[in-house]
Amino acid sequence: MIEFSGPVWRILFQSQAGSPLDPARAPEGRFHHGGQSALYASLSEVGAGIAIRRYVSAGDPARVIQRCQVTASLHDLRGRPEVSLVWQDIAAADLPSPTWAYSDKARAIGAQGMLYSSRSRPDLSHLVLFDITPTTIRTVGQPHPWHPDAYLSLDP
What we know:
Oligomer: single chain
Distance between the termini: 29 Å
Order of helices and strands: EEHEHHEEEEH
Largest sheet: 7 strands, mixed
Number of strands: 7
CATH architecture: Alpha-Beta Complex
Strand content: 25-35%
Number of helices: 4
């Protein structure tokens, strides 16, 4: 585990701008399932754009990008491609995502979250927080409009 303190970025629908530290709304995600809470962010603005591009469609509602500050004990899994596999196809087949084993282990050892590499851009890193409290994450400044155009054309 490492002690992490630094900025992270989240891209949200503009309608969520009033509660930017809410956990993921989906009941399952890359690193949460079965009623678990998770807040996903990236260690750079570019990384946030890369992470969300799979979920962006033409005609989507407006989005914003919010800078946050995280201070937490994190399980560091960067540089391990198996952690960043495409989990959605597995879950769609009603199978448990293999990525859940990593987050379940991190939770079991008391990690407040995890760091992991971007699947499509391993030079970029993302973060998932399990402990979503004012001592682990806070917003910095106001959200700004975010436009996906620059990110949709980047190579996967």
